[in-house]
Amino acid sequence: MEENIKVTISNKHTEEYEAVLYVCNKCLEMHADETYMCEVCTCESLRIVPESELINKFEGREGN
Questions:
Q1: Residue 37, Cα to own-chain centre: how many angstroms?
Q2: By three-state DSSP, how is residue 48 classified?
Q3: First and final C-alpha spacing in the chain
Q4: Per the domain annotation, does 54 fall within a domain?
Q5: Positive/negative CA dihedral, 51, 41, 34, 32
Q6: What is the C-alpha to C-alpha distance for residues 46 and 9, in angstroms, rounded to an integer?
Q7: How many structural domains comprise the chain?
Q8: N or C: which end of the chain has fewer CB within 10 A?
Q9: What are the phi and psi torsion angles at 61 (to 5°)?
């Protein structure tokens, strides 16, 4: 039985680990699981984004 394991990175400023998402550069779909190809548009260009960075961006938009 496989467990759901969140991919994490080490934050060099806080020395803590935080979850990351794989974001497609073409359609901006977010994937929680480690992948090399977008499941929506099959693009092979994804970037790794810390979850906290995405949360901060969305919180900033709500204030406008």
A1: 13
A2: strand
A3: 45
A4: yes
A5: positive
A6: 16
A7: 1
A8: N
A9: -70, -35
In a domain, 3, yes or no: no
Q: How confident is the model at residue 23 (pLDDT cuts 50, 70, 90)?
A: very high
Determine which helix (DSSP H) or strand (DSSP E) holds 62, and give its type and residue range: helix 51-62
Cβ atoms of 16 and 27 within 8 Å: the answer is no
* Positive or negative torsion for Cα 6, 62, 27, 41: positive
Tens digit of each residue's pLDDT (9 = 90 or more) over 29-58: 999 888 999 999 999 999 999 888 877 776
Q: For residue 61, what are its two tokens? A: 């938009």
Q: How far is CA 57 from the centre of its chain?
A: 13
Domain presence at residue 2: no
- Residue at 17 is within a domain: yes
* Parent domain of 46: 8-62
Nearest Cα to 20, choosing from 47, 56, 60, 59? 47
Cα(14)–Cα(37) distance, rounded to whole angstroms? 30
